[in-house]
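Entry 12.
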Amino acid sequence: MRCAGRTTPERNRLRAHVTLFHALPHSVEDELAAVLGDLARSAPPPARIEGLMKLGAGTALAVESPEMVALHAVVADRMHGLLTQQDAQPLRLHVTIQNKVTTQAARALQAELGPQLQPLSFRFRGFGLYAWEDGLWRLIHLFPFVAECAFWVLTDANLPLEDAACTAAAAHQIKPPERQAWYGGVAQLVRAAES
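Predicted 3D structure (C-alpha coordinates):
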Protein backbone atom coordinates (compact mmCIF):
# COMPACT_ATOMS: atom_id res chain seq x y z
CA MET A 1 0.00 0.00 0.00
CA ARG A 2 1.41 3.37 -0.94
CA CYS A 3 0.10 6.87 -0.55
CA ALA A 4 1.29 9.13 -3.36
CA GLY A 5 4.16 11.27 -2.18
CA ARG A 6 4.32 9.53 1.20
CA THR A 7 6.71 6.66 0.59
CA THR A 8 9.70 6.11 -1.63
CA PRO A 9 10.04 3.04 -3.88
CA GLU A 10 13.34 2.01 -2.30
CA ARG A 11 11.61 1.69 1.09
CA ASN A 12 8.49 -0.06 -0.19
CA ARG A 13 9.98 -3.57 -0.37
CA LEU A 14 7.04 -5.77 0.66
CA ARG A 15 3.38 -5.76 -0.18
CA ALA A 16 0.87 -4.75 2.48
CA HIS A 17 1.43 -6.98 5.49
CA VAL A 18 1.12 -7.29 9.25
CA THR A 19 4.36 -8.25 11.00
CA LEU A 20 4.00 -10.77 13.82
CA PHE A 21 7.71 -11.23 14.66
CA HIS A 22 10.69 -9.12 13.64
CA ALA A 23 13.64 -11.41 14.35
CA LEU A 24 13.83 -15.13 15.06
CA PRO A 25 17.03 -17.22 15.01
CA HIS A 26 17.94 -19.24 11.93
CA SER A 27 18.05 -22.39 14.07
CA VAL A 28 14.24 -22.44 14.45
CA GLU A 29 13.41 -22.41 10.73
CA ASP A 30 12.23 -26.03 10.55
CA GLU A 31 10.16 -25.83 13.74
CA LEU A 32 8.71 -22.46 12.73
CA ALA A 33 7.79 -23.79 9.29
CA ALA A 34 6.03 -26.76 10.90
CA VAL A 35 4.07 -24.53 13.29
CA LEU A 36 3.04 -22.08 10.57
CA GLY A 37 2.10 -24.93 8.24
CA ASP A 38 -0.14 -26.43 10.93
CA LEU A 39 -1.77 -23.10 11.73
CA ALA A 40 -2.36 -22.36 8.04
CA ARG A 41 -4.61 -25.42 7.78
CA SER A 42 -7.30 -23.37 9.52
CA ALA A 43 -9.75 -20.92 7.98
CA PRO A 44 -8.44 -17.43 7.20
CA PRO A 45 -8.83 -15.25 10.32
CA PRO A 46 -11.18 -12.29 9.93
CA ALA A 47 -9.85 -8.82 10.65
CA ARG A 48 -10.87 -5.20 10.45
CA ILE A 49 -8.98 -1.98 9.82
CA GLU A 50 -10.27 0.28 12.58
CA GLY A 51 -8.38 3.52 12.01
CA LEU A 52 -4.92 5.03 12.08
CA MET A 53 -2.09 4.13 14.46
CA LYS A 54 0.59 6.69 15.29
CA LEU A 55 4.11 5.26 15.04
CA GLY A 56 6.04 8.36 16.05
CA ALA A 57 8.12 8.58 12.87
CA GLY A 58 5.34 7.10 10.75
CA THR A 59 1.74 6.05 10.34
CA ALA A 60 -0.05 2.71 10.18
CA LEU A 61 -3.51 1.27 9.75
CA ALA A 62 -4.66 -0.21 13.07
CA VAL A 63 -5.93 -3.79 12.66
CA GLU A 64 -8.26 -5.69 15.00
CA SER A 65 -8.22 -9.50 14.83
CA PRO A 66 -8.59 -11.54 18.02
CA GLU A 67 -8.15 -14.71 15.94
CA MET A 68 -4.77 -13.58 14.56
CA VAL A 69 -3.67 -12.50 18.02
CA ALA A 70 -4.49 -16.04 19.22
CA LEU A 71 -2.45 -17.57 16.36
CA HIS A 72 0.45 -15.27 17.25
CA ALA A 73 0.26 -16.51 20.85
CA VAL A 74 0.63 -20.12 19.66
CA VAL A 75 3.80 -19.26 17.73
CA ALA A 76 5.16 -17.13 20.59
CA ASP A 77 4.61 -19.99 23.01
CA ARG A 78 6.55 -22.38 20.75
CA MET A 79 9.37 -19.82 20.41
CA HIS A 80 9.49 -19.15 24.18
CA GLY A 81 12.94 -18.00 25.26
CA LEU A 82 13.96 -17.10 21.69
CA LEU A 83 11.99 -13.87 21.24
CA THR A 84 13.81 -10.55 21.10
CA GLN A 85 12.73 -7.79 23.45
CA GLN A 86 10.83 -6.18 20.56
CA ASP A 87 8.98 -9.41 19.73
CA ALA A 88 8.16 -10.07 23.41
CA GLN A 89 6.17 -6.80 23.62
CA PRO A 90 2.35 -6.91 23.48
CA LEU A 91 1.21 -7.36 19.87
CA ARG A 92 -0.32 -4.34 18.14
CA LEU A 93 -1.49 -5.49 14.71
CA HIS A 94 -1.00 -2.86 12.03
CA VAL A 95 -0.11 -2.23 8.38
CA THR A 96 2.60 0.41 8.07
CA ILE A 97 1.86 2.97 5.37
CA GLN A 98 4.52 5.55 6.28
CA ASN A 99 7.84 5.03 8.05
CA LYS A 100 11.07 6.86 8.90
CA VAL A 101 9.73 10.37 8.37
CA THR A 102 9.72 13.41 10.62
CA THR A 103 7.10 13.67 13.35
CA GLN A 104 5.65 16.66 11.50
CA ALA A 105 5.27 14.66 8.26
CA ALA A 106 3.61 11.80 10.15
CA ARG A 107 1.16 14.16 11.85
CA ALA A 108 0.34 15.80 8.52
CA LEU A 109 -0.52 12.46 6.91
CA GLN A 110 -2.59 11.43 9.94
CA ALA A 111 -4.53 14.71 9.78
CA GLU A 112 -5.15 14.20 6.06
CA LEU A 113 -6.14 10.52 6.16
CA GLY A 114 -7.93 10.38 9.51
CA PRO A 115 -11.22 11.94 8.39
CA GLN A 116 -11.25 9.93 5.14
CA LEU A 117 -10.49 6.48 6.54
CA GLN A 118 -13.44 4.10 6.71
CA PRO A 119 -13.39 0.76 8.58
CA LEU A 120 -12.63 -2.15 6.26
CA SER A 121 -13.16 -5.85 6.92
CA PHE A 122 -10.84 -8.43 5.38
CA ARG A 123 -9.40 -11.89 5.97
CA PHE A 124 -5.73 -12.70 6.30
CA ARG A 125 -4.40 -14.70 3.33
CA GLY A 126 -1.66 -16.63 5.09
CA PHE A 127 1.75 -16.49 6.69
CA GLY A 128 4.95 -15.48 4.96
CA LEU A 129 8.41 -16.19 6.34
CA TYR A 130 11.17 -13.82 5.19
CA ALA A 131 14.91 -13.44 5.81
CA TRP A 132 16.86 -10.17 5.75
CA GLU A 133 19.52 -10.56 3.07
CA ASP A 134 21.63 -7.96 1.27
CA GLY A 135 19.37 -5.13 2.42
CA LEU A 136 16.16 -6.79 1.21
CA TRP A 137 13.56 -9.15 2.64
CA ARG A 138 13.79 -12.48 0.81
CA LEU A 139 10.87 -14.89 0.76
CA ILE A 140 11.58 -18.22 2.47
CA HIS A 141 8.16 -19.87 2.81
CA LEU A 142 4.52 -19.06 2.04
CA PHE A 143 1.78 -20.67 4.11
CA PRO A 144 -1.64 -19.72 2.68
CA PHE A 145 -4.68 -20.44 4.79
CA VAL A 146 -6.58 -23.38 3.33
CA ALA A 147 -9.49 -21.38 1.93
CA GLU A 148 -7.13 -18.84 0.36
CA CYS A 149 -5.16 -21.20 -1.89
CA ALA A 150 -7.09 -20.23 -5.01
CA PHE A 151 -6.33 -16.53 -4.46
CA TRP A 152 -2.66 -16.69 -3.49
CA VAL A 153 -0.02 -15.27 -5.79
CA LEU A 154 3.69 -15.23 -5.15
CA THR A 155 4.77 -11.81 -4.00
CA ASP A 156 7.27 -10.92 -6.71
CA ALA A 157 6.74 -13.47 -9.45
CA ASN A 158 2.98 -12.89 -9.83
CA LEU A 159 2.56 -16.59 -10.50
CA PRO A 160 -0.37 -18.57 -9.08
CA LEU A 161 0.45 -20.96 -6.29
CA GLU A 162 0.39 -24.55 -7.46
CA ASP A 163 -2.86 -26.29 -6.52
CA ALA A 164 -0.91 -29.36 -5.43
CA ALA A 165 0.81 -27.35 -2.71
CA CYS A 166 -2.54 -26.16 -1.43
CA THR A 167 -4.08 -29.59 -1.23
CA ALA A 168 -0.99 -31.38 0.07
CA ALA A 169 -0.07 -29.18 2.99
CA ALA A 170 -1.55 -25.73 2.37
CA ALA A 171 2.01 -24.49 1.98
CA HIS A 172 4.47 -23.68 -0.80
CA GLN A 173 8.14 -23.42 0.08
CA ILE A 174 10.77 -21.40 -1.70
CA LYS A 175 14.31 -21.64 -0.34
CA PRO A 176 17.02 -19.28 -1.54
CA PRO A 177 20.58 -20.64 -1.24
CA GLU A 178 21.96 -18.73 1.77
CA ARG A 179 20.34 -16.59 4.44
CA GLN A 180 21.57 -14.59 7.37
CA ALA A 181 21.12 -15.90 10.88
CA TRP A 182 17.97 -13.89 11.71
CA TYR A 183 14.51 -14.28 10.27
CA GLY A 184 11.91 -11.60 10.46
CA GLY A 185 8.68 -10.33 9.10
CA VAL A 186 6.50 -13.36 9.74
CA ALA A 187 3.67 -11.62 8.00
CA GLN A 188 0.27 -12.09 6.50
CA LEU A 189 -0.62 -10.53 3.19
CA VAL A 190 -4.10 -9.03 3.25
CA ARG A 191 -6.95 -8.92 0.78
CA ALA A 192 -10.05 -6.79 1.18
CA ALA A 193 -13.22 -8.74 1.90
CA GLU A 194 -15.37 -9.34 -1.14
CA SER A 195 -18.66 -7.47 -1.12
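Annotation: The chain has five helices and ten strands. Residues 66-78 form the longest helix (13 residues).
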